[in-house]
Design brief:
- There is one protein chain.
- By secondary structure, this protein is mostly helical.
- It has one domain: Growth Hormone, Chain: A (Up-down Bundle), CATH 1.20.1250.
- It is built from 14 helices and no strands.
- Helix 1 packs antiparallel against helix 6.
Amino acid sequence: MHNSTPYSADWPPPIRALKHRNFRLYFIGHAISTLGSWVQQVALAWLIYRLTGSAALLGLTTFVALVPQLLLGPLAGAWIDRHDQRRLLMLSQGLLGLQAVALAVLTATEYIGPAWIIACSALLGVLNALDTPLRQSLLSRFVDQREDLPNALVLNAMLINASRFIGPPLAGLLLGMTDEAACFALNALSYLGLLAGLLRMRIAPSARAQGSLRSVFGAGLDYVRDNREVRLLLIGVMVINLTASSYAVLLPVFAKDVFAGQASLLGWLWGAAGCGALLAAVFLSVHRGQEQLGRVIFHSALISAAALLTFALSTWLPLSLLAMTILGFGISTSNIGTNILLQGQTPEGLRGRVVSLYTSTRFGFDAIGGLLAGLLAAQVGGPAALVVAGVILLTYCLWLIRRRERNIAGPV
């Protein structure tokens, strides 16, 4: 079923996937939903540090919000491939909205505390373990032409990263005018955008994988095990999110303790990283040479290590904002580039499972890195914790260079 406009040839190449009606509906709805999610994430981080002043709790909360993607994500992919994906996405969006409502009510009534925060974050993590691979695997069905899929993936990432750029400063502004409960309520309303788009789509039911959940899951693992390039790409995702992405957990520590700022400064730090991530998506939207993406992914990891170390050691705010921008660019270029390579070479019937392994690796090791960074920062301070992460990532990059010099094929 075609959903592109009659004048699809007039769409500029950097946004060519928007010629497809279903993708436009998804894009608009997801833009609203993602902006609300970033507002909630910043507000929750500020609420935790305002109530407790604990870097360890920041790390623990991030861990329980992301680790379900590591534990449940691969199984979720097998489950996704056996069911109607659009109906599942509508269900997950509705449940995410209810989670935000619960968080808003608990905060407004002052029942909120560490236990409730951890419980709500864990629920968010379980729901995202289903929602994230669902959205990623459905992208291929929102466009009619396979050659437009890489552009759809880039535009989807651009949308998310534009929200990272706009959402945190907006959250800081809202926190100055209202409170955390209002931010959570706003996020709950934002899920209606994607739900409305999904209801308006004209899309045929997806072909479902046959067999038991165990056999379907096993087939996905066999594909990854037998494909050396896929394995190497997933290792790279694991390392960069374990190390570089750990900065996000400690931003409230830097905003409040290093720079003596308030919620608005936290928003600007997060927004700087979002600006870099948005630039990464723009860069990849015009970068046509997919055969060179392996090198791009390596160089993005290298600049991420340099930016992370610069941010950790800087006490000058303009330099720190610049480092955040470069760090956001490096992490996003690596993650988006890997996603493009994986989805471009994975068979349609296996996409849900491979995408779920990618998202579980990305967000699961983000969770582990955040937990370790928070625990380490509680002992040695935020800057020292990020120095450790930066040194580990730099060591990994040097190891890749050494492999290349020995003429061993790899992702470099």
